[in-house]
Design brief:
respiratory chain, 14 strands, disulfide bond, Rieske_Fe-S_prot_C, 7 helices, 4-stranded antiparallel sheet, Rieske Iron-sulfur Protein, transmembrane, 354 residues, 3 domains, alpha+beta, disordered N terminus
Length: 354
């Protein structure tokens, strides 16, 4: 039946000529429908697990098996954490990262797949629709919502499936260990981020060329030149990979008149400035220097730092300047550090203030 209705804005609303007898309504003079018919839900098709008790039980066993995979993944992560500690060689780093990564992957994948399979094969799959109401529902509606949640818990049958409930609780209870274990005090020194606050740089430590270790005199550095430097004695520490990753520095000599600012008073020497090579975004090595603009570019994500202005960020995702190493010269004219960096190097971590 076709019915003409009067709209709120004074326009006539009438069914389109081609849709007589339907609920599609058009405003006069417009082609876009004002209202569509409600198609409703199609016929419900029961799943095999709904009609076959054997299939239902098989689906439950599959969900339990997936939770078991998560539990084994968490246990594997814990074993790998202690069995394959981080070492000084690329081989030990690779072995540790691989085993920890696989354990974490199976722990997460098992929980995720189990939850999806549980919802699709065991929980109620009848489609439901609810009218939209004001955000603050009536007390009756709120009570009904609580009841729906209770019905959902009942529908999941978790109370009647003891093995399934045990597998769920066990996998969820064990998984946080993959996050908490690396954060536990001094269980593994290599997971202790507090050591990132300090490097080998110290008062009167000479700047040496990377990788030869030859000390540098200020007179050897010309305007516009860039030198990659490491602290003197780095190769004698016994942990060169760890220490070099923190202590690498880029030394640049500018015309002193081009220096706009530096991070500390007297931290440069006659236009020579030294900044950490570790990008403050995600830790990539910053090493591309543009002499005319005095800009340093990180090749990973294009963060750009202005060496002439305290290595402040001028472009890209980095949020902080590169830490500056205070330098001076000793009695023989060699470049030396005045101290360690005054802030942690590299990207953010949970213990740094900024």
């Amino acid at each position: 039946m076709s019915i003409t209705q009067h709209g709120h804005d004074g326009h006539d609303e009438r069914p389109h000529a081609d849709t007589a007898g339907s609920d599609v309504v058009l405003r006069e003079g417009e082609d876009s429908p004002e209202r569509f018919p409600n198609p409703g839900f199609g016929p419900h098709r029961p799943r095999r697990s709904d009609v076959d008790p054997a299939a239902n039980k098989r689906a439950e066993r599959q969900v339990v098996a997936l939770f078991a995979i998560s539990i084994l993944g968490t246990i594997g992560f814990i074993i790998a954490y202690f069995a394959f500690p981080l070492g000084d060689s690329p081989q030990t780093l690779h072995r540790s990262n691989l085993t920890l990564g696989l354990g974490l992957a199976f722990a997460l994948l098992g929980i995720g797949l189990a939850a999806v399979h549980w919802a699709k094969s065991l929980m109620n799959d009848h489609e439901k629709a609810e009218d939209r109401h004001a955000q603050r529902s009536s007390d009756q509606t709120r009570a009904e919502a609580v009841q729906v949640l209770k019905d959902g818990v009942e529908d999941s049958a978790i109370g009647r499936r003891g093995v399934l409930k045990g597998a769920l609780v066990s996998s969820l209870a064990l998984f946080p260990l993959t996050i908490a274990l690396p954060l536990i005090g001094e269980v593994g020194e290599d997971w202790n981020v507090r050591k990132l606050k300090h490097t080998m740089w110290a008062k009167n430590k000479k700047l040496t060329i990377d990788p030869t270790g030859r000390p540098i005199k200020a007179a050897d550095v010309t305007v516009g030149s860039v030198v990659h430097v490491i602290p003197e004695g780095l190769d004698e520490t016994g942990a060169p990979l760890d220490e070099k990753a923190k202590a690498v520095v880029l030394l640049v000599r500018l015309d002193p008149r081009d220096i706009k600012s530096e991070q500390g008073e007297g931290w440069s020497y006659d236009g020579i400035v030294a900044f950490s090579k570790i990008c403050t975004h995600v830790g990539c090595p910053v090493a591309l220097y543009e002499q005319q603009t005095h800009h340093l570019l990180c090749p990973c994500h294009q963060s750009t730092f202005d060496v002439a202005d305290g290595a402040k960020v001028v472009f890209g995702p980095a949020k902080r300047p590169l830490p500056q190493l205070p330098i001076t010269v000793d009695d023989e004219g060699y470049l030396v550090a005045q101290s360690d960096f005054h802030e942690p190097i590299g990207p953010s971590f949970w213990e740094r203030l900024r």
